[in-house]
Amino acid sequence: MDDSKFWPRGTTRCGTVPFGLWMLFCLLMLGWALVSAFLVLYKGLNQTNMNDYFAFGVWIVVDLAVIALGAGAFFTGFMTYVLKREELKNIINAAVIIGFICYSGAILMLGIDIGQPIRGWFGFWHANVHSMLTEVMFCITTYLIVLIVEFVPLILENRQINKVPDLHFFAHNLHTIMIVFAATGTFLSFFHQGSLGGMYGVLFARPFAARTGVLIWPWTFFLFILSAIAAGPSFTTSIVMITEIVSGKKLTTQKTKAMMAKVSGYLLLFYLVLKISDTLYWAFVQTPGMGLSPSVYYQAPYGTWLLIAELGIGGILPCILLLSPQVRSSYFILLVAMLLNCFGVTMNRFVMTIQSLAIPVLPFEKFIAYLPTWQEWGISAGVVAYGFIVFSLAYRYLPVFPQEPKLNPTD
Amino acid sequence: MLPFVFEWRWDIGHGVFMGLFYLALTVVSLGVVGALAMTFYDLYSGKEVHEEGHGHEDPWADYSYGHDKADRGEYA
Asked: What are A97's strand-pairing partners?
C-alpha cells in the first residue's frame, strides 16, 4: 500500500512494511496495557502492589514524570509566541505533540489509578478549592484542551486534509491567534506543575516530603515548576534527536537544539541552586527540628545512592554539560546530557512519591519497599506505546519539522 | 463547580479558584470561536486556497510555524 500522497511535501518516509512492523510492536505493548487495564477495572486495585503504605505507586511516578517532561510544550510555546524566539518555531510542533502525548497519557493512566473512572467527574462537580490536587485536576484537563487546540491545526495541515478550503482556513486562523492559547497554556501549566509539588510539601505527616514555604505555597511548589521547565525542553529536543537517528534525517538545525540545550542548562542551574539549598536546610535544620536524623530517610533499598543519582548524575552533571558550548555543538554528548536531565527529574518524582511513603511515620511501622506488579508495569508501558504510536503517525503524515525539506534536499 | 451544586460557598476561595478556571475556559473558547468566525469570513470573501506550496517556491513557505525568519541548514 502506497501512502506517500499523505506524507508532508518535499519529504520521504520509510516503507509501509517496516512502519507496519513498528506499529505492530507498539500495538502489542498497548495490548499488554489493555489486558492490565481490564484486570484492574474488573477485579479492582488488588491487582496492584499498592497498599496502606503505598497509596501512590508506579502510576503516579510515571504520571508526575511525564507531566514534568511534557512541560517542554508550554515552555517552548511561551518562548516562541510570547518571548518571540523565532528559532524555536522549528521545534514547537514537536513540543506540542509531545506535550499532548504526555498529558493525555497521564490522564488516561489516572483514569485507571482512581479505580472508579466513571466517578472521576466528582472531583470537578464537588470541587474542594483548598486542595492542591483539585487545582492539578482542573489545570491538567484544561491544559489538555489547550494542547488539543494547538494540535488540531497541525493535523489539518496534512497534505490531503489541507486541500479542503474550510479546514485549510481554520488551521491557518488558529495559527494566527496561537499566542492566546500559548499564554493560557503557560498560566495553566505553571500552576499545576507547582501544585503537584505543593501536594508533597503540605504532607506534614511525611517528614521526607514536607517543607516550609511562603504563604500557602511550600518550597516544593516552586521547585517542581523549575525542575519541569528545566527538563521539558531537554526531553522535547532529545525526542527530536532520537527521531533523527532512527529516521536517518536531519529534522532541525544544531542551532535550534543548542538553543533548547542552553535554555535547559540555565534553568537547571537555577533549579539546582535552590534545590540544593532546600535539601541542606531540610537535612540540617528542618529534620533535626522534628527530632529526626536524615539517616532515617535513607535505608535499603532507598539509600543515599538515590540522592546522588538525582542531584549528581541527573542534576549537576547534565547542568555542567548543557552549559558548555563545546557540548552543545556535539551531537551525541548533547543527547546524553539532555537524557541525564530527564533522568534527574524522573528520579526526583520517584523519591518524592515512593521514598516519601516508604519511611515509617508510626511506632509500629517498618521501612518497606514497593515493587509494581506486571499489571502496573503494563499500564505504564501502555502510555509509552501510546506515545510511540501518536508521535510516529504524526511524524509520518504531518508537517512537524519545517526545516526538514531544506535539510534533506535529496528527498 | 456551579453555584447550585452541593457544597458550593460564596467565599474568596471559590471566587478565585472557579473564577480563574472559567476565565481560562472562556479565553480558549473565544479563541476557537474567533478562528471559526475568521474562517467563515475567508470562505465567503472568496479567498483562495493555495495548494502544493501555496503558490510559493518553498513548499513550507506558507506554513505558519518556522518559516521565513527561522534558520535553515545552519549549525552552531
From this structure: none
Read off φ and ψ for residue B54, nearest 5 degrees: 55, 35
Nearest one of B34, B63, B66 to A76, comparing CA atoms: B66
Q: Which residues of B touch A180 (CB under 8 A)?
A: 27-28, 31
Contact A153 B64 (CB under 8 A): yes
Question: Does pTM top 0.90 for this prediction?
Answer: yes
* pLDDT at A276 (0 to 100): 97
Q: How many CB pairs under 8 A join A and B?
A: 141
Tens of pLDDT along A352-373?
A: 999 999 998 888 888 889 999 9
Q: Is B19 on the interface with A (CB under 8 A)?
A: no
Q: pLDDT tens for residues B32-65? A: 999 999 999 999 998 877 654 433 334 444 444 4
Chain A contact for B57 (CB, 8 A cutoff)? no
CA distance A10 to A2: 16
pLDDT score for B36:
96
Q: Can you tell me the distance from the alpha carbon of A102 to that of A94, in angstroms, rounded to the nearest whole number?
A: 12
Domain ranges of chain B: 20-48
Residue B76: pLDDT above 50? no
Q: Chain A residues with CB inside 8 Å of B28's CB? A: 142, 145-146, 149, 180-181, 184
Q: Which residues of chain A have pLDDT under 70?
A: 410-411
Cell of A289: 527540628
pLDDT at A52: 87
Cα–Cα distance between A314 and A271 in angstroms, integer? Answer: 12
pLDDT at B73 over 70: no
- Tell whether A42 is within 8 A of chain B (Cβ): no
CATH number, domain A4-405: 1.20.1630.10
Backbone angles phi, psi at A230, to 5 degrees: -80, -35
Residue-range domain boundaries for chain A: 4-405
Nearest to A10 among B35, B59, B73 (CB): B59
Listed in order, strand segments (DSSP E) in A216-352 are: 217-218
Give the one of A146, A173, A178 whose C-beta lies nearest to B38's C-beta: A173
